[in-house]
Specification:
Shape: elongated
Largest sheet: 4 strands, antiparallel
Helix content: 40-55%
Distance between the termini: 172 Å
Order of helices and strands: HEEEEHEEEEHEEHHEEHHHHEH
Mean pLDDT: 78
Length: 357
Amino acid sequence: MNYFAPVFLGVLVWFIVRCVLGGFYIVNQNERAVKTIFGKAQRIKNMTTLDDPISEKLREDEQERYTYPQVKVILPGGPYFKWPWEKIYKVSIAIETVNMAYDPEFPNANQRNTVLEAVTKDQLNIGLSGQIRYHVSDRNLYAYIFGVKNPIAHVMGYFVSVLRERIANFEGKPVAAGADASAPVMDGIAMPTAGDTGTGTFSAFSAIQESVANSVQGISINDLRKNLRDLNDHMDNECQVSSARYGVVLEASLITGIDPPPDVESALAAINTAHNQVSSDISLAQASADQKIVQSKRAVEIETLKAQGEIETLQRLSSQLKELKAEGGTEALLVYIRNTKLALLDQTKRIVRRVKQ
């Protein structure tokens, strides 16, 4: 009996340390936790991810594959207590940023996880660089912890496949022909547009600009570079299902660089330089034509105002003479004419008279 007392005391101490003191835990502010009892996660009865709005964008065939039970999430706080047959899985929900070429399973892939390769519609192998922001979804922790072995690898693979498919079929927006629908205004004078009568210069400039723009519109790299925002928005929209699929929310994707193959980079640079030079020349010519048209309209307006002023002066003089004749008769008019002649003679420096022979 004396041997059993120390053994019993040791077992009791181990139980207290291991099961009682070691059973307390806390959950940090940037963490969420899930508890399992004998290996089974605590679930919300009769609730799956299909009952959550995160699954609204899943297709019908995907809803059958990506149906996960909703689990009870342990929020930040504590201390909490667990028994030895219970296990706690903690995950961080902080936002993380990785290179879009990151491959968690193959560190040497994609030029050591720095540049992602993709093929354009005209069969050019380009290099993409950028970042992805993501965080673990606390609304689908079952998929992240138990449903997928390596969720980040699945999310990155899904993102890369969607991005490559988009680049392989990407086409730039068509160039709008003609000028703007609303004519600009300068100093109160409406500027003519491409549809104004007698301003064929504008329509000619518009046709040349459209031709120059279309000359580089078919080059896929130019299309991609000019529409990076649309490409990023498309990726954000397509990757909204990642939280329902893998329990990971893609906050945003930011593609910052598109590099062409080295053997076509110089040719592409020459094309873009020529295009920029032609566009600059056309813009300068159009600005000069616009300025001349405005000056011409201003000159016409000034001369018109002068003519109107002279006409108004003569009309007022005529009305005054009529009033003078009505009040004083013909003699008053003769006196007015004599006074006017005298005023003119005071201002005259030389008089030329014709002498009859």
